[in-house]
Amino acid sequence: MSETEIRDDRAAGRLEAVSGGEVVGRIEYFVLDAPRHALVPVHTLVEPAHEGKGIAGSLARELYAVAEREGVPVAPLCPYVVQWAERHPDRAPAADPALLDAAKEWLAARPGRF
Asked: What integer is the mean pLDDT of 57-74?
């Protein structure tokens, strides 16, 4: 992944892995405002031709790095990010159950958003 750049398109709610000018993977997320700010990843997708190259893991690592830089927690709803966080507790603090509940409510109130 040395030539893959990861960029945060906050307005679109996507953390994107870009290689050769092409988006080869992404984490779709939203920013929860209440009960406190948090990043909430919902889906992780990697283009089939790029699977098995560590792209999803790099995206999850960068999501937690962004959250740390911004001083906000991550409340993962994406199954991949949940599993990644369980394997990397040193980089991914456990999610607050109240934030997870609030994130699920936010998402349920916006069917079709993701």
From this structure: 97
